[in-house]
């Protein structure tokens, strides 16, 4: 018998594990050995098990290990945001026995007789927080204010104040030769560029021409 490409020759029933809802109703917290999160997630992938380990990415200078001013100037470091915790969708609970047989996996996180879990809204909040952690430092303040506003933690006026540049506001320089130093905004020109007094507590210097992307609000 001859076959041709694209010809249907039969059907194979899919495993029950593939017949899962697109979005779980809840997520349960699985304890694993801290530092082995990535290894466990890899084992999950090999067994077609769904799970999420939040990851934050940093770029550090190769010489001293301090945070790099720009991603291309440093070495990429990936770390678990919550070491030792992996989030398991509710539809995988039926396979908990197999999951616990994986090396470095402990059990679901419990508090007495209460089992920890997150609903869809709480899980989305966590994803948003992890996303902000992966932003450049100069952009995190604005993103956090928007997050607080989105979930109703603060009012619109408070959100605007969190991100407003004004004379007298304290900043931290996030880019350039003065990166990491604190300063005080002294002037804002019509183009939005800043002049700030930047120092280390003992000595200081006036820096002009800073952009919003180069600074981080800290008060």
UniProtKB/TrEMBL annotation:
InterPro entries xrefs: NGN_dom_sf
Kindly list the biological process annotations in GO that this record carries.
DNA-templated transcription elongation
Identify this protein by name: NusG-like N-terminal domain-containing protein
Which species expresses this protein natively? Bradyrhizobium quebecense
